[in-house]
Amino acid sequence: MNTLSIVIPALNEAPNLATVMASVPVDALAEAGWQTEILVVDNASTDDTAEVARSLGARVVSQPARGYGNAYLAGFTAASGDVIATGDADCTYPFDALPQLLRTLVEQDVEFLTTDRLGRENREAMKRSHTMANHALSALSRLLFRNGLRDSQSGMWIFRRHVWHGLDVRSTGMAFSQEIKNAATRAGYRFLEVPIEYRQRGGEVKLNALPDGVANLRQLFEHRFRRSTQPGAEQPGAEQPIPEQRGAEQRDVARPDAEQSDPEQPSVEQSGPEQPGAEQSGAGRPDQGQVALPTQRKFESV
Ligand SMILES: Nc1nc2c(ncn2[C@@H]2O[C@H](COP(=O)(O)OP(=O)(O)OP(=O)(O)O)[C@@H](O)[C@H]2O)c(=O)[nH]1
Ligand SMILES: [Mg+2]
Fold first, then answer.
1. Which residue's alpha carbon is at the smallest distance from atom 20 of ligand 1?
2. Ligand index nearest the alpha carbon of residue 204
3. Which residues pair with 37 in a beta bridge?
4. Confidence class for position 126, pLDDT limits 50, 70, 90
5. pLDDT digits (tens, 9 = 90+) for 210-249
6. Please, which residues have CB within 8 angstroms of residue 129's CB and are 6 or more apart in sequence?
7. Ligand 1 site-directed mutation target among 68, 76, 134, most atoms within 8 Å of CB
């Protein structure tokens, strides 16, 4: 059985968790050969996010240091699956499409799969100002990193565990999302971007649009011109085999399969379901600045 960890960062998302957890098709995933664990990272919530998550059968990881990136750093450390999938705790991401997305990961032998929410069919779900900011940040990100990704801000990624261990991702806040994508593509992992359905957010917005946008801009330039200090991680020009490049963009939208104690340290709690893993392919690495060629293969939508 392959093992999958679904990591969900949550800051005061208690009212959304029942919907989010119910949208994970654990049975369909099991039928497809994926043993799944769900980790909710409680990011110092002041509501009962942790209790609700636990009662719904999630493993709760406690991250007292606020920040979207901090939440993922703790979640990935705690995750035991050979494949990790992510998404917000606000009902926006289609966890019900995971069986299809995993099939794509395996069939196309991708190491890092990211998703694109910016298709026209999703325009009702995102505020106009957010859509424009996402397009602008993504355009700048493409210009600097030359990876062809349409949506640098999407929070749904599915990747093989070894990828995370080969990356040098430093953002503690919202810039984590663009940084992990740009780090993975720059490091030369086989990547692919597929369209997904994006849904309206439940509950309160947590994003601080202006400061988060400015922080993202700064991070893009810092990352592009960074000299890595971590040997082997995302080192431009390192002596590694160059993998076959796979590219951004597939056009049909991935939709749900209809059938189918130290307060400063993150802590993990075991509760609820099983443990996650999937077959891995060799981690090919780096060659900075390679442009990924768009694949011609279409995503199967249901
Ligand atoms: N913004 C923010 N989100 C956090 C933090 N810690 C955990 N999260 C969670 O990270 C996810 C992303 O935050 P969102 O507020 O949804 O950010 P977003 O998706 O860019 O913005 P929306 O379009 O409003 O959904 C949510 O599940 C949050 O609950 C944090 O410190 N700040
Ligand atoms: Mg969100």
1. 207
2. 1
3. 5
4. very high
5. 999 999 999 999 999 997 655 445 544 333 333 444 455 4
6. 209
7. 68
Mean pLDDT of the chain: 83
**Sequence-distant (≥ 6) Cβ neighbours of residue 11 within 8 angstroms:** 43, 44, 45, 49, 66, 71, 206
Distance 268 CA to ligand 2 centre (A): 23
Please say if the pLDDT value at position 293 is more than 90.
no
pLDDT higher than threshold 90 for residue 41 = yes
Q: What is the domain count for the chain?
A: 1
Identify which of 122, 126, 150 has the alpha carbon closest to the alpha carbon of residue 138.
150
Ligand 1: which residue has its CA nearest to atom 30?
67
Tell me, in angstroms, the distance from the centre of ligand 1 to residue 273's CA.
Answer: 25
Q: Are strands 267-268 and 157-160 parallel, antiparallel or unpaired?
A: unpaired
Q: Is 25's pLDDT higher than 80?
A: yes
**Sheet of 267-268, strand order:** 191-195, 112-116, 157-160, 83-86, 2-10, 34-42, 59-62, 267-268
Q: Return the ∠ at Cα 71 (arms to 276 and 102), rounded to 5°.
A: 35
Query: CA 227 to CA 15: how far, in whole Å?
Result: 42
Distance 207 CA to ligand 2 centre (A): 8
User: pTM to 2 decimals?
Assistant: 0.83
Is residue 9 classed as helix, strand or coil in its secondary structure?
strand
- Contact indicator for 83, 281 with CB cutoff of 8 Å: no
Ligand 1 centroid distance, CA of 1 (Å): 32
Residue 264 has pLDDT above 60, yes or no: no
CATH number at residue 221: 3.90.550.10
Q: What is the pLDDT of residue 134?
A: 97
Ligand 1 residue neighbourhood (C-beta within 6 Å) = 9-11, 13, 43, 66-68, 71, 88-90, 92, 130, 155, 201, 205-207
Tokens of 83: 């494949």
Domain containing 139 equals 2-299
